[in-house]
Amino acid sequence: MKCDLILALDLPDEAQALRLLDRVGAEVDVIKIGLQMFTRYGPAFVDRVAALGAGRIFLDLKLHDIPNTVASAVQSLGDLPIEFLTIHTSGGRAMMEAAEAVKRRVRPSLTLLGVTVLTSIDAAALRETGVDAAPEAQVLRLARLAAASGLGGLVCSPVELPLLRRELDASIKLVTPGVRPTGAALDDQQRVLTPGEAARAGASGIVVGRPIVKAADPAAAARSIREELAAALAPA
Ligand code: C5P
After folding, report:
1. Alpha-carbon distance 228 to 220, whole Å?
2. Binding site membership of 8 for ligand 1 (Cβ less than 6 Å)
3. 4-233, CATH topology level
4. Which atom of ligand 1 is nearest to the CA of 155?
């Protein structure tokens, strides 16, 4: 199985983002555009990134609304050259099924990735929202619901990889942030795996931001992560 290197394009403005892509584009598989860039620059920015031909595009909007509204948003995004789009699984089965149905019509090559419990939510915060289950149990419950609703993948924390790989069909893509090359700064990430560990635990893609974005030589940083992924997945 392959594990994509997904660059989190988290930068303050478009000029810096495009400059970075110019340097690292050839070294990453996928480019993740998040709310920071999308809310400022909109769909035109996605088209500009695509025009650079630097990688496939992951639009991380974490959609969460009533089924009709999320389905309409997927329809609106259907013209964009994106390969992955995130939606919140806690929006429920009807919302996920509606999003999938529209996706199959407007952009069948798009994979909808479900977000389960945000890693910023611990047991106490989850309880405050009325969910008494342990976070891990809630992640699994939502992950199963996402798979039953037809989603092609999930975003999960690296520590959830073994559980979800064990419990879900092998065709489900698992994409994980919280990855740090050995020796890199943790920044605000707490529980991390190295790229090689994440790949061996069954990640279909790893999201990496600051270890590449803030590196003195971003292209070299990305290349070395890719080499680590390839080495981890090479047959023994
Ligand atoms: O810079 P860093 O490698 O930590 O960036 C990771 C990316 O993954 C960021 O875009 C961040 O928002 C996202 N993310 C995360 N942890 C989560 C969910 C998403 O770091 N639990």
Report:
1. 12
2. yes
3. TIM Barrel (3.20.20)
4. 18
User: How is residue 13 written in tokens?
Assistant: 């403005």
Distance in Å, CA 236 to ligand 1 centroid:
31
- Domain parsing of the chain, residue ranges: 4-233
pLDDT confidence of residue 184:
87
pLDDT at 37: 96
Q: Which residues of the chain have pLDDT under 50?
A: none
Give the helix ranges, DSSP H, for 52-194: 67-77, 93-106, 123-128, 135-148, 161-167
Distance CA 111, CA 82 (A): 9
pLDDT at 180: 94
User: Given this model, what pLDDT does residue 200 score?
Assistant: 96
Does ligand 1 have an atom closer than 6 angstroms to the CB of 34?
yes
Q: Measured at the alpha carbon of residue 164, what is the angle toward residues 150 and 36, in degrees to the nearest 5? A: 70
Confirm whether 2 is a catalytic residue.
Answer: no
